[in-house]
Design goal:
Layout lengths: L2 H12 L1 H9 L7 E7 L2 E7 L5 E5 L9 H7 L6 E6 L5 H9 L4 E7 L2 H8 L5 H4 L4 E5 L7 H5 L1 H5 L3 E5 L1 H6 L1 H45 L15 E4 L5 H4 L1 H6 L4 E5 L3 H4 L8 E4 L21 E4 L4 H7 L4 E4 L5 H6 L17 H11 L5 E4 L9 H27 L10
Helix pairs in contact: 1-2, 10-17
Amino acid sequence: MDIYEKNLRALSKTHSHLVQMIEETIVDNAKVKVLRKSTDGIEISYRRPDGKTITFHDDINLSNLPPGATKLLNKKEWTKVILLLGFGLGVYPEHLLKLMDDKCTLVIYEAVPEIFKVIIGLKDLSELLGSERVNLIIGDGKLDLRFIQKHHRDIARGRFYVLKQSLCIETDEAAYEKFRSQFKESKMFTDVNVLTGVNRGAEWSDAFLENIPSIMRTAGVARLKNLFKGYPAIIVSAGPSLEKNIHLLHKAKGRAVIIAVDVVIPTLVPAGIIPDIVVVLESNRTQFLVFQDIPLLRSIPAVFSGEVVHESLSALYPGPTFFAIIHKHPASIWVQRFWLDKGSHMEQFGGSVAHTAFALAQLMGADPIAVSYTHLRAHETVLDLVCRLLLEKKKTQAKRIVENKRSARSPDRPVTNM
């Protein structure tokens, strides 16, 4: 077994999803060159698309970690996370792994798969690649940032440090900036989910526990699987352009499956648009008043989460109902064995009703799926939307604070820049 196969085998044990990508990566020898491989060390060069050449060598100084990283690594009683931007020749990650204890996780992002593939063919890195304490993210495509959720507690509490290999970042500055931006947005999105859970967790848990008898009696969302396979779907959510462009939905009726979120029903029905299915996520009992006295929904199914108070809903909603258990909180895991065979669970990313509607469209086999009448911009995902709105809100709040401070100053007091 050569070095490359040994490293790939180690990688397959911890990051099996990366093996195929690495195998399919084609290394252009004109871009990545091995300049030196001997007992003295390894040296390679990488030529960027703009012609600039970056040279890597493994005789770097590893003795002086930033004080913040050293301090964190010395906290033996803490769980903690080190994020390293750039795999490079593997020397820095290997050094960090030796300094880490069992409570530390090392997350490594390498933007250029070609460099990674060349290195694992030159040097035995099987101990690093096979370590359960190492999380590798490679490439500039769809970034796997699940470590943020997994280690959110440590990241939010400051048990987290970012280290950068400057030469690696020079290879593809745009990719590393994309990673930084998506990390920031995903972390903010997770912050919001956690805070929402803290603020409303008791309410949701109470509603869920109250629902257990209803969940056991009601059909699971799996009954709808592939119901609209191959048909286009339009998800109608609340947004500023709904009333302005609602006439366009008339043209779509009969040509696409219309999935409406709960809050748009009072807008759609008076306009003569009856959706094909309704998604309900809100646990607030007053929210269900939107379904009151609407007999036109008698044949329209509604899918609602375990956190929706079913008794209130069943008293008001005239049509058939299905349960979708979305959030795997301790209460649902505790009693899920009672309805696993009913197919009530539905996987989704994110916690909004628009996320639930999108996951339902996927479950029903709809293709393509259009998300309409939200605050989404062109080419923007729901995650992008949430993070953008939060950033805009944060900027607005900061601007107001500054304005309030200015207005509090006396008119004759000079304003100086510090």
